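Problem statement: downstream parser choked on a complex file, so we are re-checking the raw output for the fe (iii) ion run. The parser issue turned out to be on our end (a line-ending mismatch), but while we're here, posting the original submission so the record is complete.
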Amino acid sequence: MRDIDEFSITQAVIEANRTGNARLVTIMESLVRHLHEVAREVRLTEEEWFQGIRFLTEAGQMCDDKRQEFILLSDTLGLSTLVTALNNRKPQGCTEATVFGPFYVEDSPLVDNGGDIANGAHGTLCFVSGSVHGLDGKPVAGAELAVWQSDDEGLYDVQRPDATDHQARARLRTDTEGGFHFRSILAVPYPIPHDGPVGRMLEALGRHPWRPAHLHFKIEATGYERLITHIFRNEDDYLDSDAVFGVRSTLIADWTAHPPGVAPDGTRMDQPYYTLHHDFVLNPKPAAAPAAAEQGESA
Ligand code: BEZ
Ligand code: FE
């Protein structure tokens, strides 16, 4: 393999790969072809190539267990939304999925229905209720919901260096009717972290870093596909310019403002508060195909 030039380089790289891992070969061949095509199409200069290397280096250096600059890069380039769409094609009537984002935490506290998930996070009180059903209309009892959101300054607990406890996040289980309800705070629009290379990229492209107000949900139940989604707040200024392209019309809901009075859980409220109700519809998993041996036996 000698005298490789701008025309033969792509095939040379592809042919250098020696593995029986067919999926890896498929992905890497495609990646190399497209990467090289970009360089050819824009006639990438050496200075631009080096700027790109510096950008990726800084993105890597920015990452730790609390800051995921590469997820932000994927999100702002629309890759996260594309991968979500490719992997979550659901029948009409199912709740749509959207991006996961970088602020989910495993094993948040399990709270009872009616519990306060804010746990001290600041914001206007908001009472959230809803249900989980299958596409056939059957209530899904015992589904596990993980919920997470930012506070009224647009920060998640994991973004606060002084936070010692989970705030504005929890897990709940649906009751026998598939219902759930909890007390939290009002979601507000917030900018994604933009003090790193991804923020500089957005600025250079004339883009803003804002996301419309939303509540995150991850819903898991036996026999149904996992659902990762948000519920967005109607009339938010950023619904049509979400920095990470995650808004689906079917996920926009009315969050109702109430004057001081008696809240849904019977609490007397001195301050205005909000309520949100949303019903989720899960896609049943296809029935498991019978094992080959069983098929043979019954034939
Ligand atoms: C989020 O909604 O939490 C989020 C999603 C993508 C990038 C940053 C934050
Ligand atoms: Fe979020």
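For whoever reads this later: DSSP finds seven helices and 13 strands in the chain.
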